[in-house]
Specification:
It is a single chain. Helices cover 39% and strands 22% of the residues. It is an alpha+beta fold and 503 residues long. The strands form 3 sheets. It has an 8-stranded mixed beta sheet with strand order 7-11-12-17-16-15-14-13, sandwiched between helices. Strands 2-3-4-6-5 form a 5-stranded mixed β-barrel. The chain has a 3-stranded antiparallel beta sheet with strand order 8-10-9, with no helix packed on it. The chain is globular and about 85 Å long. It starts with a strand and ends in a 20-residue tail after the last helix. It binds 4-amino-1,4-dioxobutan-2-aminium adenosine-5'-monophosphate (4AD) and magnesium ion.
């Protein structure tokens, strides 16, 4: 092996005792007398590089000492295995080369508000938290493709410019397509149904657009959705497919990204419990739970817990504020400032939840059969369970036109939502499709849709119609649940929200 092998940090385990070169960015550094500790980041991980005076030329030692955060550099040295070190290895540096020094990097270890970080998303992307989420996202996307590819599904790319209304007319992004109004896709489903009649089992996976006027932590205007569609399937078959699919994704993340999950503070024990069967409730049973004692007691207990958490947070803030005013070193001040920002944002969230609790209790207690479940209702049901919950058989009026009417009870449809546990809410929506021509036409009329633009979709019910169905899983919501990230905007590289598009 040549003397100066350039390697990636995640390969250091194969080079213990050898001299290697790393190339990356200065994540952090600290000096202690004659030793400098550099934390280098190279896209595959972090590595502590130790520069000792005397081991490198004096002027290089000085240059490194004043190197700013995010400067790019190459460092050469001997790899040492060290259990206590970041990633289990460190580099005893013998040489270094600065590629491009950085001065005044705007994102410091001090804390910054969300707006600031979003405006600096192009740089914030380098943070450990974003890096961990990005790695998990990569696994989730790969697991999605692999699951369907390995189970006999054919990938069908559905169009982004669409002529049909897929979900509801109120959330369409219209585009001027050479003078003709088209809209950006809300779902690939309708096109996918035609493909299912050719290939049997198909899926599409791509960006999806919704002009939803929702500023919640669960809504983006551009998000990624994967949608399988299967010919000859019924509702129990769909639920089974969905629970196997979600279990597969979670297992893959647990296998490939344990380090990232730990670093993100995800609830690994909860993820390890994810396995079929998931809970199954009908909409009607769900409404009974919402209106009943179980929900009332649950929310009362939650309110008490929130209040005690608030008290603890407040006393920790007071403690830190006192430390901050004392005689302490700058790095300690920065650390306290960062923790304070975190705590204050946690406190604001606790306040909102305490304030919302009675409203949510009232909404649940007075829930009228027939209404779609709201965000707070989903959250309640989802918090009560330690595994995902299927809610099936929603009222027909609350749901999309294409869902199959339950022949045993024509007030409801054969659909389901999958609610992720621990309060994360809906991650999947799906249904059996109406396969009867007349019934489907009636639903199109009833929802005020234009039968003219849906004539090709109706054709599928004319020529060899079969029972079929599918579902859609939102990548960012799934990722928020798995990583424990509170806001879905952190789960997509460059988020687009109703009120904000930063860069
Ligand atoms: O429940 P939805 O609207 O279902 C459909 O679009 C069906 N056509 C799918 C199908 O049957 N083929 O959306 C499916 C999922 C939701 O459960 C959620 O995870 C995600 O897409 N989703 C959103 N994610 C982020 N921001 C939004 N505004 C979202 N709207 C839906
Ligand atoms: Mg839905």
């Amino acid at each position: 092996m040549s003397k100066n092998t350039t390697v990636y940090i995640d390969q250091l385990k194969h080079h213990v005792g050898q001299q290697v070169t790393l190339q990356g960015w200065l994540y952090n550094s600290r000096a202690s007398g004659k030793i400098q500790f550099l934390i280098l980041r190279d896209g595959t991980g972090l590595c502590q590089c130790i520069v000792e005076k005397g081991n490198v030329p004096d002027e290089l030692f000085e240059r490194i000492k004043h190197l700013g955060q995010e400067s790019s550099l190459k460092v050469t040295g001997t790899v040492r295995a060290d259990e206590r070190s970041l990633g289990g290895h460190e580099l005893a540096v013998t040489d270094a080369e600065v590629i491009c020094p950085a001065e005044g990097y705007p994102i410091t270890p001090k804390a910054h508000g969300v707006d600031f970080l979003m405006k600096h998303r192009h740089l914030h992307f380098r943070s450990q938290r974003q890096w961990c989420i990005g790695k998990v996202r990569h696994t989730v996307v790969d697991a999605i493709r692999r699951f369907f590819n390995d189970n006999g599904f054919v990938l069908i790319d559905t169009p982004i410019f669409t002529t049909v209304v897929g979900e509801d007319q109120t959330s369409l992004f219209e585009v001027d397509y050479f003078g003709r109004p088209l809209h950006l896709t809300q779902t690939g489903q309708l096109y996918l149904e035609s493909a299912a009649m050719s290939f049997g089992r198909v899926y599409c996976f791509g960006p999806t657009f919704r002009a939803e006027k929702s500023k919640t932590r669960r809504h983006l205007t551009e998000f990624w959705m994967v949608e399988p569609e299967v010919a000859f399937i019924d509702l129990p078959g769909l639920l089974e497919l969905a629970e196997n699919f979600v279990t597969y994704i979670v297992r893959r993340v647990l296998a490939d990204n344990r380090g990232e999950l730990e670093s993100l503070g995800a609830d690994i024990a909860l993820l390890e419990r994810i396995q079929p069967p998931f809970y199954r409730l009908t909409y009607t049973e769900t409404v009974e739970i919402l209106k009943g004692d179980k929900t009332r007691d649950f929310l009362a207990r939650e309110l008490a817990e929130l209040k005690s958490e608030k008290q603890q947070t407040e006393s920790r803030i007071a403690e830190l504020e006192q430390q901050q005013s004392g005689q302490i070193k700058q790095w300690q001040k920065d650390k306290i400032a960062a923790e304070l920002i975190e705590l204050r944002s946690a406190l604001a969230e606790l306040d909102t939840r305490i304030e919302n609790n009675p409203t949510h209790a009232q909404l649940a207690a007075e829930f009228p059969w027939g209404k779609d479940l709201g965000g707070s209702d989903e959250t309640i049901i989802s918090r009560m369970h330690d595994k995902p919950v299927f809610v099936t058989h929603y009222p027909k009026e609350a749901k999309a036109f294409y869902m199959r009417t339950d022949r045993a009870n024509d007030k409801v449809v054969e659909n389901f939502d999958m609610l992720a546990p621990a309060g994360f809410g809906e991650i999947i929506g799906g249904s059996v499709r109406e396969d009867d021509y007349e019934r489907l036409l009636a639903r199109i009329h009833a929802q005020g849709l234009d039968p003219g633009t849906h004539d090709w979709y109706l054709d599928l019910r004319k020529y060899g119609s079969v029972p079929h169905g599918g579902f859609g899983l939102g990548v960012e919501r799934t990722l928020a649940w798995i990583t424990g990230e509170k806001h879905i905007r952190q789960c997509i590289p460059f988020p687009r929200m109703m009120d904000k598009v930063y860069i």
